[in-house]
Known about the structure:
6-stranded parallel β-sheet; about 45% helix; alpha/beta; elongated; SIR2/SIRT2 'Small Domain'
Amino acid sequence: MSKSIAEAARMLAGWLRETRAGVAFTGAGISTESGIADFRSPGGVWSRHRPVMYQDFLADASERQRYWLMRKESAPAFLAAKPNAGHLALARLEAEGRLTAVITQNIDELHQRAGSRRVLEVHGTAMKVHCLSCDKRYTGEEIQTRLEAGEEMPQCDDCGGILKSMTVSFGENLPQDVWQEAARLASECDLFLALGSSLVVHPAAGLPETAASGGARLVIINRDPTPLDSMADLVVHGSIGETMEAVMEQMKAESRKSKVESRKPKAEN
């Protein structure tokens, strides 16, 4: 059932106090609040460029050149972005032991920059680049500097191999170790927070169904309706940052109230 932010904050704060194995699952919607455009949205990278398939990237130099042109255009937003209230709230909940992990479809590492320690990146990361031959690693900043200096197809400066962002491209398999751990966490959790995901990109979008089938409470916070809203215990169509800020404030208020109550002298019989 869809709720207002105030109502949702009260409900979710209560569930978070009770949870022993909460999991968060995040999509592009949490990062758009940090200024990173959804690739699929109007004006996004994929509305201006056809995505490069993984096999084409490997086989065709012109496709690699097009890939790096897209990277040059999109990377500045990733490099400049800062974690927002949603990212910070999830990091705090993990530190308090209320979340066991964040599973993310995003490639911007904003969860790590917010302080989350256990982040499962099912689509990899755009903040690192590696050599497909020798696996030498480069930071996103290093490669962006080379692209802006005029390199059209950066190569490994150790072995001359092909470089690629450490993201999962179209036609490339998901990292199986990450995916298996994400599926395990979803099946064992007691609270599953789906934040900023349209819940249409599979197989990752199946994780909320796995959690709900295992008996977990399912919470969906997303700007637009999703195909799984009808199975959720709580739905909020609104800002993730605003909602999670309200949740954290509610938890603080209830914690203060609990401390005051515990200090009151007990009535004598």
